[in-house]
Design brief:
This protein is of the alpha+beta class. It is about 40% helix and about 15% strand. The protein has 17 helices and 17 strands. The strands form four sheets. It has an eight-stranded mixed beta sheet, sandwiched between helices. Strands 14-15-17-16 form a four-stranded antiparallel beta sheet, with helices on one face. A three-stranded antiparallel beta sheet has the order 2-1-3, with no helix packed on it. β1 and β2 form a beta hairpin. The longest helix has 28 residues. About 45% of the residues are buried. Bound molecules: pyridoxal-5'-phosphate.
Length: about 500
């Protein structure tokens, strides 16, 4: 029996069907049944749920099963717990959240912020999520289901058991030596870079590294060229440093930084993702790379090369990274373990021109000193004992399978309505839409619990391509297929009246 917040009894049953022969875990069935009932409006906002005990008795499952399902729905925002009065269907469902480009509402507290703080809090977040564990098309998340948790926990336990007094003390500001050596070896072999451990600077994730670079190299009002569309994390770091951001449009050869610089006057820094432009996915041509380096030399500018997912290539031969082509020490290379391992690790690295390394070390003394030592040591072990390379090899073949599942599901369910561009690198795809507007598809998909992003969410240009950005790495092939079927329904719902697209469900 279900009541509402005013205490009135309602007569709906939850409509949760438990199939004891199904291979789907019971708690997942309970979770999915309640969520479906909420999304279908059977359980309306404000409705009170029965207690976990009553629900368990009603469904013939254990109380732990219902507790876990209710906790997950609460964590994802479908339910809210009110102390002493029970659990209710949330008034604002996560699926109804506004699109990613909407700016946060002006907040009275913003008045007490600095100019920099106010600018920073106004940067729109492009990373909209339904929440909960990885699901189809989440952007930027690797296959966490395939991460070697047992190896990792063995290494963590070993390091924790054997921690020395020196390791428990404040440590090297640039990062643990063993990790810096392992990273220098890795980039020398994998990326053909000339680099020593002295140039490696460990950061708490690539995003944080970009922020540290901006803090040291930019003054308020400095002009910075940034790819458009581009990575919102880099945009936030630039805004936080008070930079004036000049967009460098991206075409099939990557961002054309020198042309953008020519029409806007000199800049102090350029931020680029040459190996796999985020989010468009193209590689910067060799001619553009050379022109960019020449521009930086002539302008006395720095280049931040973000190589966030270069480990994953599907057949394509990599072009040399900018850092490897740069004779003048103008390129700062940024690497991340968020895609190669897992994002919660919060570790990445910078490879710096030698003179700059010491400056960043000095600047960091004013901040957090260094990332956590234990995590760095475990990561150093993972790399030096060969587990990292092994994991990358396994992931390359898993991602090929997931990419192929995405492509064939798009073909099957969306036909020509979603044209996925060729995927040679990385963990996400870009797909053009002809029949519907990307922002409208985003909203319809969100209503169905599907996480796709419109390309417009990453653009400052008023006329971005009408396309979706879709992660394919974090979900299994069957989940991608199910997600694509839902996405096809979203495209149909958002389709312009003049189009004739019908999703597979309706054909
Ligand atoms: C282009 C780009 N750079 C950097 C990152 C973030 O890396 P990290 O998690 O190490 O901060 C991302 C994350 O999605 C990204 O897309």
């Amino acid at each position: 029996m279900i009541g509402n917040s005013t205490g009135k009894r309602a007569v709906n049953s939850l409509l949760v069907r438990i199939d004891s022969r199904s291979r789907e875990p019971l708690q997942q069935q309970v979770y999915a049944g309640i969520r479906r009932a909420i999304l279908d409006g059977v359980l309306r906002p404000g409705t009170r749920l029965p207690s976990s005990r009553a629900l368990a008795a009603d469904l013939g499952v254990s109380r732990t099963t219902t507790v876990v399902a209710i906790e997950q729905l609460t964590a994802e925002g479908y339910l809210t717990a009110r102390h002493g009065s029970g659990t209710f269907v949330a008034r604002n469902l996560p699926d109804d959240l506004p699109p990613a480009r909407v700016l946060p509402a002006p907040n009275a507290r913003a008045r007490s912020l600095s100019h920099r703080g106010a600018a920073l809090t106004a940067v729109p977040s492009a990373g909209w999520r339904v929440g909960g564990p990885p699901r189809a098309f989440r952007v930027g998340v690797p296959a966490l289901d395939l991460f070697p948790v047992r190896v990792w926990s063995r290494l963590v336990a070993r390091r924790a058991r054997s921690a020395t007094l020196t390791q428990l003390d404040y440590n090297e500001v640039a990062g643990v030596r063993a990790l810096r050596e392992a990273i220098a070896d890795h980039v020398t072999t994998a990326r053909g870079m000339r680099c020593t451990a002295d140039q490696v600077f460990i950061v708490a994730g690539a995003q944080r590294g970009i922020e540290e670079i901006c803090r040291c190299l930019l003054d308020h009002g400095d002009r910075v060229l940034m790819e458009d569309p581009g990575f919102p994390g880099a945009r936030s770091a630039l805004v936080s440093a008070g930079a004036e951001i000049v967009p460098a449009p991206v075409d099939a050869s990557g961002a054309d930084v020198p042309s953008a610089a020519k029409s806007h006057g000199d800049a102090r820094l350029a931020y680029v993702t040459p190996s796999h432009q985020f989010p468009v996915g193209v590689a910067m041509s060799l001619a553009r790379r050379q022109a960019l380096l020449e521009w930086a030399k002539a302008a006395g500018a720095w280049i931040v090369e973000d190589d966030y997912d270069n480990e994953f290539r599907y057949g394509a031969r990599p072009l040399p990274c900018l850092h490897g082509l740069d004779p003048d020490g103008r390129v700062i290379y940024v690497g991340s373990f968020s895609k190669s391992l897992f994002p919660a690790l919060r570790l990445g690295f910078l490879i710096m021109p030698p003179d700059l390394q010491q400056q960043l070390v000095a600047a960091r003394r004013a901040a957090d000193l260094h990332p956590p030592t234990l995590d760095q040591l475990v990561l150093a072990d993972l790399m030096s004992e060969g587990h990292f390379e092994r994991h990358l090899r396994r992931m390359r073949s898993a991602y090929c399978e997931r990419r192929d599942a995405l492509l064939s599901a798009a073909d099957r369910f969306c036909r020509g309505a979603l044209r996925v561009r060729p995927i040679h690198t990385g963990l996400h795809a870009v797909a053009d839409l002809d029949e519907a507007d990307g922002d409208a598809v985003f909203r319809e998909a969100a209503r169905r619990g599907i996480e796709v992003m419109p390309l417009s969410a990453y653009s400052v240009s008023p006329r971005p391509a009408n396309a979706l950005v879709m992660g394919f790495a974090c979900a299994r092939p069957d989940t991608l297929r199910a997600g694509m079927e839902q996405l096809a329904a979203a495209i149909e719902a958002a389709a312009r009246p003049t189009t004739r697209f019908r999703s597979a469900a309706r054909r």
